[in-house]
Amino acid sequence: MIKIINVHSCIDVITNSSSELFICDTKKSLEVIKDIILSFVQAYDKAYEYGKTFEDMFNEPYIIEELDFDLIKTLGSYRHFDYLKFPEYEHDKNIGWDECQKKWHDKIEKWIDINRKRLEDDFLNKVILESADDNSIPWGLMEVICDIFNADRIHLG
To answer: N or C: at which end does the chain have fewer Cβ atoms within 10 angstroms?
Structure first.
């Protein structure tokens, strides 16, 4: 028997892929952060015979040294900037996709300018740690990262 499921929106489609981004509020250097995580990766592998390396699980960590439009757009899309009223994407079927994207891009640029001081306070000098691939970080390590590095975990889908 064939069943047809009417999809109302992309929210109706469930996947099992999961990318993660951590914003770490720590005074530890990138080298120390990587060393600590490497220790946990090795312990996890020893305990569970996971067979993954740091590089399999994570991209290289980096420090936010300036406000990057793409990073802010990503954070705004997945993280709730309710306190700053992040502009929502609005699709206007009377204009093309490219024009809608441009309008949203312009709104975000204005929003960044208006909220620059707060964004700088919230994000500059924070460490970004990203998953290397979908489902690459075991759940237990996510909790450790949040605890040790005072990290805000953002599930990117």
So the answer is: N
Q: Which two tokens stand for residue 8?
A: 């109302």
Q: What is the pLDDT along the chain (157 residues), one digit of tens a residue?
A: 454 444 444 444 444 567 899 999 999 999 999 999 999 999 988 998 888 899 999 999 999 998 888 888 877 776 666 667 888 888 888 888 899 999 999 998 999 899 989 888 888 999 999 999 998 998 889 999 999 999 999 888 7
Distance CA 39, CA 93 (A): 51
Answer for the pair 150, 23: CB distance below 8 angstroms, yes or no.
no
- Going by C-alpha positions, the residue among 153, 157, 155 that lies closest to residue 25 is 153
Domain ranges within the chain, ordered by starting residue = 18-64+125-157, 66-124
Residues 6+ apart with CB under 8 A from 21: 74, 75, 78, 128, 129, 130, 131, 153, 154, 156
